[in-house]
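Checklist before submission:
- one chain only
- standard amino acids only
- sequence pasted in full

Submission:
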Amino acid sequence: MKSITRCLVFLLIGLAGVLLAAEAPKPNIVILLADDLGYADVGFTGGKQIKTPHLDTLAAAGARLEQYYVQPVCSPTRGALMTGRYPMRLGLQVGVIRPHEQRGLPLEERILPQALKEAGYTTAIVGKWHLGMFKKEYLPTSRGFDHQYGHYCGALDYFTHEREGGFDWHRNDKECRDEGYSTHLLAKEAVRLINGFRSDQPFFLYVPFNAVHAPHQVPESYKQPYASLPEPRRTYAGMLAAMDEAVGQIHQALDKQGFLKNTLILFSSDNGGPSPGRVTDNGPLRGGKGGLYEGGVRVCAFATWAGQIKPGSRIATPLHAVDWYPTLLNLAGAPAKQKLPLDGQDISTVLLGGTSPEREILLNSTAAAGAIRVGDWKYVKHDPNGAEEDSEGDAAHAIKKKGKAGAKAPPEELFNLTQDPGEQHNLVSENQEKLAELRKRYEKFARQAVKPGNVPQPPLGFKAPRVWGQADGSAE
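Returned file contents:
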């Protein structure tokens, strides 16, 4: 009899736990995305030259994501984040979406704000879209965002808000002539929205800064503390300081409104830092933006959620931007069923201190090059022409991949990242079996890739419109 009573007690406790979980409020979600940030340029990854007190405070309040991956350049990362699918399925695996291109994130994709709206969320984007603007259907307010503020293109002027002579600043996908430094404007708008969010309705706030991407521009006062640094790193440092200040303002607004206790805050860069050593610092990681080495695809990142994610913790599990889509849908209670299969994995248990089984992470796959990570191992297939793109249309150029002696990189490379995080020792000849295994797993993905739609050069006679994204009159 006692054993039956004990079983009933345990059953009731279990049912109570299920009911409490079901009644738990849906978390607010804030994603802060930096642009072209160096891995070691923030204090929470060991950076010393540039002060980032607000980012460091938020990172310390949660978990550092020590092996967090994105794509080599901008638009592909944003596509992965919005869909939970690798960019090679979206036609976004090569380069970025340039202003003249007649393409965008495919409309058949069910993207993150659309899915969260289904779960009752208010959704807003404040910052850089960079996923297509040539038709109204591709603009943020047509893709699930209730509110939009900021710009569509990359590499815009921080003060004039122009790109190649066309104006690029918008509110709710209509021309907006707000004046000021773009980082300041984005912070101001994000704070305004936070102050207006309802306490009884969850919100998704996506803040993709254009900082610290070129052109390197910042008010002079932000550069003064870094007078000892040479240009352009001095200006870059000021830009990062201004972005860190903006993050602090957003954090303070969340705290003031009482949202911090139930808000998941995510932060990362969209790709590795460009021109490492001259502009950015990627620390121990080899290479930079546009490349397949760790310096191009592994970035500084953290996740903070009061009462859920352990403060001061570190997560060494390899993660990828595609993982946020299924994870956030799960946490938000959003319908998970959809027509297109996901590549991302639900990492909610990992964030809360659990573990996950060994997995494969596709770092990119183009016709000429690509990379994949499986457990401790990484396989890199190089472009036989020895070039990788390192641009967003603002300073297009090819960079030759060089080995230690200055020679062109070999066709394939194999690294054990646990033993060799700096990717200095190619183990192709020593481990043919592992090479064959990873090559096979990479080629499986490569066969599934759709044809990329990249058109790097504008057509003959192309002229920038007066306002980007409104050339067809759709957003007038």
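Reviewer check: Confidence is low (pLDDT under 50) at residues 1-22, 389-406, 472-476.
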